[in-house]
TrEMBL record, chains A, D:
Subcellular location: Cell membrane
PANTHER family (alphabetical): MOLYBDENUM TRANSPORT SYSTEM PERMEASE, MOLYBDENUM TRANSPORT SYSTEM PERMEASE PROTEIN MODB
Family statement drawn from the similarity comment of this UniProt entry: Belongs to the binding-protein-dependent transport system permease family. CysTW subfamily.
Protein name: Molybdenum transport system permease
Designated gene of the protein: modB
Species the sequence originates in: Lipingzhangella rawalii
UniProtKB/TrEMBL annotation, chains C, E:
Record-linked SMART domains: AAA (SM00382)
InterPro entries per record: AAA+_ATPase, ABC_SmlMolc_Importer, ABC_transporter-like_ATP-bd, Mo/tungstate-bd_C_term_dom, NA-bd_OB-fold, P-loop_NTPase, Transp-assoc_OB_typ1
Keyword ATP-binding: yes
Annotated PANTHER family: SPERMIDINE/PUTRESCINE IMPORT ATP-BINDING PROTEIN POTA, SPERMIDINE_PUTRESCINE IMPORT ATP-BINDING PROTEIN POTA
One function term, GO molecular function aspect: ATP binding
Alphabetic keyword roster: ATP-binding, Nucleotide-binding, Transport
Protein name as it appears in the record: ABC transporter ATP-binding protein
Chain ranges of the ABC transporter domain: 2-232
SUPFAM superfamilies assigned: MOP-like (SSF50331), P-loop containing nucleoside triphosphate hydrolases (SSF52540)
Species per Swiss-Prot/TrEMBL record: Lipingzhangella rawalii
């Protein structure tokens, strides 16, 4: 059982979720409340990683982060290590790749916040940033949880990008998805099965807890 | 094993063609036993072409073991390894393999793949896996490529192709002999060898990459030593100098 | 202070200039449902953007104008939403403190508590916001609007969800607070009693147009248009026409009967044949069970006395409401509960309209906005 | 340029989205409005494919769909073809894999529908199914669009499952993600780049149109 | 028909049995803000689940009981929400037709249009629902509740957002509809006038308890508890005590003065020393500018006449409200606008409380729910 890979995946997913929980609300807030026409285009660009196969993203990243690119070279010279095939490289890829999974649910949630509450906030002298933080975000709790779950999950499950820019290095870039893939190819169905099971049970636990906690504000069906 | 105060073990990372999946594991196990010092070897198996592409983009690989000499040479051309670090370690052999209950009869060789009862034929992706390219060449040589092209299922590398067949999802596969001889497949089906001369010879070669630690070189030597070669022979590899009997 | 407003949006096409002096700070916006009152407040607060050409200015500060548009968060207004719009995720105290971010942190709880106490909602601090009842929510929302001590208060039906005793008390409280703070206030209400008790001035908005604007009692006593009169609860609006002018007096026929009266500003404006609307408040009409003969009297004490039939009697709390048929003209009167005991539907009564209760409104049928209104 | 692969991916994504737009609202409605305790567990199970690496799913599917399994055998006997390495197999995999991406945004959107409107509906004599269709779903428009976009996109981008159960058959299971991957591995950066670009431009167009259409009901920031 | 209700939830701890006959179908639920009126309606509709032991039954149909709980969609009730809760994504017609799914499809538009016309909202059919003003929304919501012709109507402040003329008209309309349909109705209102004009019976709810329940005029005239009296707008509630009983009459001292009166049901219940609350409605008090001497009169015509000082005069539309200081006891009276002209704060006046205006309430200080209340 490849515990290293499990740990690595959790670390990667955790870091990605953390970063996106900071970045996505700002972005989503700006997108939701800006009245400029071209925000639609920005919205589409943000959503792009969604539609792009991970291999496309992986390809562009490989080109951008690889030692043949200026960015990759600069990074390699500064840190002494290349970006591609490192944890940092994976993290960058994951953040980009999961961005829409964080932004989309937030956008949907922001859109259903009662407009009058936003108005009440502005009329009490609060600008959009303050309103976002104090009214819109707290009232979008379900959206925030969905964003976090989707981001975390999507990163855990990420395979294509990692295969392309990760390089399958144990402890550094061999995530659990890759590890299971390898086990299956090595006909080691037992290990594949066991790793899958561990992941399954763990995920189930995390999800049950998340949903149970999140259930509080859920509008149950009127006493029926 | 070393005690806690010892220097951290040297890390060697090997990228190896997936036909080595089982053979190389054994080689390394034995090699590690023979050594006094601590050596930590990690291996990634995959298609030979993929590795070249990754190494070209900076993947931290110390020893690259290809299923085909051309890929190894490409790394030297691109300046990722010294010319004299290139070495041959085996000649790859190919088989038609089918599981026990398959409708296909491997004994008929490639020609048998045209049978109507055969729905799917697994092979490695010819675009970046040498065994895939070799399989296509052999099929063409046997004059059946046109007939079977609709049945082809491509694994990302030769190990995945093998996995397709072994799991029963594909009826038959054109695989590496080394995989067919692996304990995991030996008792699951039967195979017939594809004549060595019906496809461009699979000269399996490796390179030690520039800036690799000395231990990588040692491992490469071990692979070419008689001990190493014996293990490879067990898995059906011909020695690199093999000249047709 | 002067609030100058010229607005066009949806139904709204209004011009209003409100002098807001600290000793009489409250202007009531009064009008029927759908008249555009909420729209007007929203445009002043900057929540709705009116059509180009509109203008909102407080003294020399232009908030909405040709060249600039101050966003709502930079307009120092307090707004009470008709639907309260309390933040469900914040506590009652959190709601009331929400607008106090410009106050030093240490002073906020005290200020919030004061505002809550002022709106008689002090006991609600520990109630979760979503659990507040309709009236409780309204009081908290009012406290939230008052707490930051804005330069202009916009209150959309601040007391509508309250029971009568609480409402009466809060009326007084609120007026005292507004007088003490001297905060200019634009307040929407449906309740005429509230408008008169709280408003220093009344602006009557009907169908998006300001029909009348002036000191509360003046507007109440002398509605300028038929719509305004209707909105201001002038229950009897009887179409008639001037049959002749006799010196200072007008002879007016209404239905089957006629009356002689002094127009408010002499007979100058009226000539024979002019259509007029005769307005009489229900509570000004005297109803007596005795059946004196019909009479048309010209003096101030009694303009007309007619026999009538009671068609319905409805209790309304402090008074009873009578529907009457006065020689074919339907009229409404209210009488003290004590006097109503003797009355029932079908009964013949005598109706007297006192001279000072009659209010005449010129009756231009099609477009009835007064010039310059 | 592998047009076949592009077309195949669009077909797969379209079919998956269609199926899930029918299934997910029911499931989400039941999850959102049921007051039973154990719905939390069902919710977690539905969300599982989210956390499972596509390779795990692929592994289980390979085992389940293969001719050695009862399901696979039954299918092979009935249709004369095995499920693995077919479009149908991929579709089943995609639907399972994208289920949470459709259900999650719907759940979040349902949760923010004003509870009083749900009450108003029941008190007007409508049961939960009718209320779901007529009140909850229409008021969750943003959630539905998000669900559709995420599902479509996630399917277009799917790589791991397809790699494991697809078999890379042109026109049948070689999706655009696989095609680009192969191009890159074969050092055919030109084709990879071109295919990526086509996908990028197409996706951008689809997204811009979707968002522009969806923007209508968005609560713009009060006139600022 | 009988609606039997025994409910406990939050503040609510109420028992109510309403006889709903088609000729007097409207029971008004009256009480201060936060009393639990909305909670009661919600429990009857099945939207809130009361504590075990509660029971709601219409005739022999048990809706909430020990063993069963009929879900709201199977209770044939119409509900008007205090916050309207219109479906924003449906048109006005869509909203009103929403509950008509049991009607043949062809009949639905007509029924919806009828309901809209009945609530004077016919002109709003083409307005997008989110654009409806407060009062417009309320009328549409009312139409939506009426349209399916439910077996029981629950109306939570159906007219609160309307302007006075519209409200007065709708009051009549609504009462006519309810009488015509004979639909038993439980209606919450804050407006005493509305309660009396529309209600056949009134149930007074204070602090979650039913303080009184009976025919509208009876409840209005004779509140059973101090809280009920306060809720029912009995403006003057003067604590006093019985000093002696003289035959049928009671001698009561209030503050610095005393009065002699007939208790409602003979002197039987009262003895010397008993605490009582003397209730007098503001509009029953006569205020005269002349200053007759103080007098204590025992006959029915006049219980007491006292000199007093006016402390405030507030216009309230149809009347003026006077605050008075009657020998140290603060009292409130209302006078006709005509009579108020002569009055101003600080003026000395004479206050007469007529005999039949006095209402005595036993005054058990701590717990004041009447036994069996
Ligand atoms: N976006 C809009 N476009 C067109 N008309 C609108 C729009 N929004 C509101 N209206 C209409 O404008 C009118 C005025 O609405 P407003 O809310 O200002 O009325 P109001 O005077 O506050 O009424 P109420 O006393 O019932 O609250 C209404 O008839 C409404 O239907
Ligand atoms: N979930 C709850 N838990 C505890 N108390 C609650 C809850 N919900 C409401 N309350 C309280 O119950 C009381 C009654 O509320 P309700 O809405 O029934 O009042 P109401 O009589 O309708 O008042 P209003 O006339 O102001 O609408 C309120 O004080 C409210 O704070
Ligand atoms: O390089 Mo391989 O072993 O042909 O996949
Ligand atoms: Mg309004
Ligand atoms: Mg209520």
């Amino acid at each position: 059982m490849d515990w290293d890979a499990v740990e690595l995946s959790l670390r990667l997913a955790g870091a990605t979720t953390l970063i996106l929980l900071l970045v996505a609300p700002m972005l989503a807030g700006w997108l939701a409340f800006s009245r400029r026409r071209w925000t639609v285009v920005v919205e589409a660009v943000v959503a792009l990683p969604l539609v792009l196969p991970p291999t496309v993203l992986g390809f562009y990243l490989l080109v951008a982060l690889g030692t043949q690119s200026p960015v990759g070279q600069w990074w390699a010279e500064t840190t002494g290590r290349p970006l591609a095939f490192t944890f940092t490289g994976l993290l960058i890829a994951s953040v980009l790749h999961s961005l829409p999974f964080a932004v989309q649910p937030l956008l949907a949630a922001f859109a259903s916040v009662d407009r009058r509450l936003v108005e009440a906030s502005t009329v009490l002298g609060r600008g959009w940033w303050s309103t976002l933080l104090r009214v819109v975000l707290p009232l979008s709790r379900h959206g925030v949880v969905t964003a976090a779950v989707l981001t975390f999950a999507h990163t855990i499950g990420e395979f294509g990008v990692v295969l392309m820019v990760g390089g399958n290095i144990p402890g550094e870039t061999r995530t659990v998805a890759i590890s299971i893939y390898d086990s299956v190819q090595a006909f080691d169905y037992a290990t594949a099965g066991r790793t899958s099971l561990v992941l399954l049970v763990f995920s189930l636990l995390v999800l049950v807890v998340t949903y149970a906690l999140n259930r509080g504000g859920r509008p149950a069906w009127p006493q029926g | 094993g070393a005690d806690a105060t010892a220097e951290p073990a040297t890390q060697i990372h090997i990228a190896a063609a997936s036909d080595l999946q089982f053979a190389l594991d054994e080689v390394i196990r034995v090699a590690e036993q023979d050594r006094a010092d601590d050596l930590s070897v990690s291996v990634t198996y995959g298609s030979s072409g993929t590795f070249v592409q990754q190494i070209a983009n900076g993947a931290p690989v110390d020893l690259y073991l290809s299923a085909d000499q051309d890929y190894a040479e490409q790394l030297i051309e691109d300046g990722h390894a010294d010319e004299d670090s290139l070495f041959r370690y085996a000649v790859g052999r190919m088989v038609v393999w089918a599981p026990e209950d398959s409708p296909a009869d491997p004994d008929q060789g490639l020609a048998g793949l045209t049978a109507e009862s055969v729905d799917t034929v697994a092979l490695a992706n010819p675009e970046h896996a040498p065994y895939g390219a070799a399989a296509v060449a052999a099929l063409e040589d046997a004059g059946v490529y046109e007939d079977v092209s609709d049945k082809l299922v491509r694994g990302e590398n030769i190990a995945q192709a093998a996995e397709f067949v072994r799991s029963g999802n594909a009826d038959v596969g054109v695989l590496a002999l080394s995989l067919a001889r692996a304990p995991e497949m030996r008792d699951e089906g039967s195979y017939a060898e594809v004549p060595l001369e019906s496809f461009p010879r699979l000269n399996q070669a490796g390179v030690v990459l520039a800036e690799a630690p000395a231990e990588a070189e040692e491992l490469a030597s071990y692979l070419q030593s008689s001990d190493g070669q014996a293990i490879l022979a067990d898995y059906g590899f011909y020695p690199p100098e093999w000249d047709g009997d | 202070m002067t609030l100058a407003v010229r607005l066009r949006r949806h139904v709204l096409d209004a011009e209003l200039e409100v002098q807001l002096d600290p000793t009489g700070p409250v202007t009531v916006l009064f009008g029927p449902s759908g008249a555009g009152k909420t729209t007007l407040l929203r445009c002043v607060a900057g929540l709705d953007r009116p059509e180009p050409g509109s203008r909102v200015a407080l003294d020399d500060q232009e908030w909405t104008g040709a060249r600039q548009y101050v966003p709502p968060q930079h307009r120092p207004v307090g707004y009470l939403f008709q639907e309260h719009a309390l933040f469900p995720h914040l506590s009652v105290l959190g709601n009331v403190s929400y607008g106090l971010h410009r106050l030093p942190r240490a002073q906020r709880p005290r200020r919030a508590a004061e505002a809550l106490a002022a709106t008689r909602a002090g006991h609600l601090v520990d109630t979760p916001t979503p659990r507040l009842s309709g009236g409780e929510g309204q009081r908290v929302a009012l406290a939230r609007a008052l707490a930051p001590e804005p330069r202009l208060l916009l209150l959309d039906e601040p007391l509508s969800a309250l029971d009568t005793p609480t409402r009466l008390r809060l009326r007084g409280d609120l007026r005292d607070i507004l007088l003490r703070l001297g905060t200019p206030t634009l307040m929407v209400t449906h309740d005429l009693g509230e408008a008169l008790a709280m408003g220093d001035r009344i602006a009557v908005l009907v169908d998006g147009r300001v029909h009348q604007h002036g000191p509360a009692r003046g507007v109440f006593a002398r509605p300028a248009t038929v719509s305004a009169a209707r909105a201001l609860g002038m229950d009897n609006l009887l179409p008639g026409h001037v049959t002749s002018t006799i010196g200072d007096q007008l002879e007016i026929s209404v239905g089957a009967w006629s009356m002689r009266t002094n127009p408010p500003s002499g007979a100058a404006g009226y000539g024979a044949g002019d259509a007029v609307m005769v307005g009489v408040r229900a509570e000004e009409i005297c109803v007596t069970a005795d059946t004196e003969p019909d009479a048309r009297v010209g003096d101030a004490a009694c303009v007309v006395r007619q026999r009538a039939t009671v068609t319905a009697v409805t209790p309304e709390g402090s008074r009873h409401r009578l529907e009457l048929d006065v020689h074919g003209v339907p009229m409404v009167a209210t009488v003290a509960n004590r006097d109503a005991v003797a009355l029932c539907a079908g009964q013949r009564v005598s109706v007297t309209v006192p001279g000072d209760a009659v209010h005449l409104i010129p009756h231009h049928q099609p477009s009835e906005v007064p010039p310059g209104g």
